[in-house]
Amino acid sequence: MLPSIPRTQYDAEVCCTSEVTKNEKGELIHMSELLTVSEVAEILRVDDTTVRRWVKQGALEAIILPHVNERQAYRIKRETLEKLLGSNTTTELANA
């Protein structure tokens, strides 16, 4: 399973630094809580392309980052992945 994220005074300090971003809903997100497509693919033991497909199909919620290259950049919340691993959604993803 994923390592737990410490909830300490450190979290309060991080909120005041550049390690915090906002999602589309305006919610603050710690950058350390965001995973790359490659990290998610490694955890789920699938290919990067599969994770990107799930994001594009809406089966996996992700934050879309601005990009200048051809390929779109995504970040997936650790919380989203933890919920996915703790639910029956894995079978839904397999059918996507």
Can you walk me through this structure?
The protein is an alpha+beta fold and 96 residues long. It has a single domain (9-88), classed as Multidrug-efflux Transporter Regulator, Chain: A, Domain 2 (Orthogonal Bundle). 41% of the residues lie in helices and 18% in strands. A hairpin with a 7-residue loop joins strand 4 (63-65) and strand 5 (73-77). Helix 2 (37-44) packs across helix 3. The model is unreliable at 3-18 (pLDDT under 50).
- N-to-C SSE string, H for helix and E for strand: HEEEHHEEHH
Kindly state the mean pLDDT as a whole number? 74
Distance between the termini: 23 Å
> What is the CATH first-level class name?
Mainly Alpha
The number of helical segments is 5
Shape from CA axes? globular
Radius of gyration: 14 Å
**Overall structural domain count:** 1
CATH architecture label name: Orthogonal Bundle
Fraction of residues in helix: 40-55%
* Strand line-up in the sheet with most strands: 3-5-4
CATH topology annotation: Multidrug-efflux Transporter Regulator, Chain: A, Domain 2
Instruction: Determine the structural class based on helices, strands and strand pairing.
Output: alpha+beta
Task: Please give the number of β-strands.
Answer: 5
Please specify the SSE layout and strand pairing.
Elements: H1 9-14, E1 20-22, E2 28-30, E3 34-36, H2 37-44, H3 48-57, E4 63-65, E5 73-77, H4 78-85, H5 89-95
Antiparallel strand pairs: 1-2, 3-5, 4-5
Helix pairs in contact: 2-3
